Amino acid sequence: MSRDFTPDLNEFREPLPGPRESSRPSPVARRGTERARGETPRPEERSAYVREPRSKDVPSRDSRAVLYDRYRGYDLRESEIQTLADLGKFRVINAEDLTRHGYGGDRGRMERETETLVRQGLVEEKRFEISLSKSTRMYTLTKAGRRLMQRSGRVPNDQEIYAGFVKPREAKHDAELYRVYQKEEDRIERRGGRVRRVILDFELKRKVNRDLVRLGPEKDDPDKKRNIAERHGLRVVHGRIPVPDLQIEYEMPDQSMARINLELTTDDYRPRQLADKARAGFTLYSHGDDASHVRRVLSDRELTAEILSL
């Protein structure tokens, strides 16, 4: 769904500096720095760069940990913690995708664990109509779940954590970004990379807008606007800075950092919107027939972009 504020021709990736640290880095951040310096963390430590378990590596049912929020402790399975982390990063995930990617297709286990998380007040479940004849269940973190994950040390310090459902009419599109991410993460890992964090359009728009406001009267200066776009791994197109649905930061085999920008296109995109996203360099994901429409539109404008089927 286009959220107009609106780069990856042939997988545009911009090398990044290492992760930013606050003036008083947390233990997780300090351990990440140690690794960058070539120091080996102790076995019990968890670096900000350690890849979290993916759906193909669902943690054992017996693997548990206690996470604390102020004075309350939550005794959780590692797979439940992973579910909380995924929900926090993507805001909303539907039951089918959570089963497939988070639990390796084990629907019974997904149902039991999400029920436990709902009962503990960490997760909210809601049913959404996605067509005239079909509905789906979706999950999101509660405020308590968000606070727990922010204090858990289980996600990178600069990873945004979301909670709560927003704009029901966009829920289906937002939930599908989790599926887009799974496909792109597989591609990144096949090239020897590993994902460090994900950035949704909410966060990117906020940061770009903030930087533009700080320019004051110079906010329309082309060079300054281009500098802001490049700072966030984006490009200026027709005087605007298009923002993707999802940006992934990942570590390459040589330990340098890179970005890739992803857009999930739908049949309600206007031709000019698709053209601008191609010029911005986004990698485009589309459903079946939508992909043919996207290719046709771009071909008519003599534009190229990587178009992948969801």
Features:
five-stranded mixed beta sheet, alpha+beta, 10 helices, about 300 residues, Arc Repressor Mutant, subunit A, three-stranded antiparallel beta sheet
Plain-language structure description:
The chain is of the alpha+beta class and 310 residues long. The chain folds into two domains: 1-20 and 167-310, no CATH class; 53-154, Orthogonal Bundle (Arc Repressor Mutant, subunit A), CATH 1.10.10. Helices cover 38% and strands 18% of the residues. It contains ten helices and ten strands. The strands form three sheets. It has a five-stranded mixed beta sheet with strand order 6-7-8-9-10, sandwiched between helices. The longest helix has 20 residues, at 171-190. The two termini are 14 Å apart. Residues 4-15 and 17-55 have low confidence and may be disordered.
What's the total helix number? 10
Order of helices and strands: HEEHEHHEEHHEHHEEHEHE
Gross geometry: globular
Give the biggest beta sheet. 5 strands, mixed
**What does the average pLDDT come to?**
84
| Strands in their spatial order, largest beta sheet | 6-7-8-9-10
Number of domains: 2
Secondary structure: helix percent: 25-40%
**Structural class of the helices, strands and pairings?**
alpha+beta
Low-confidence runs of at least 5 consecutive residues: 4-15, 17-55
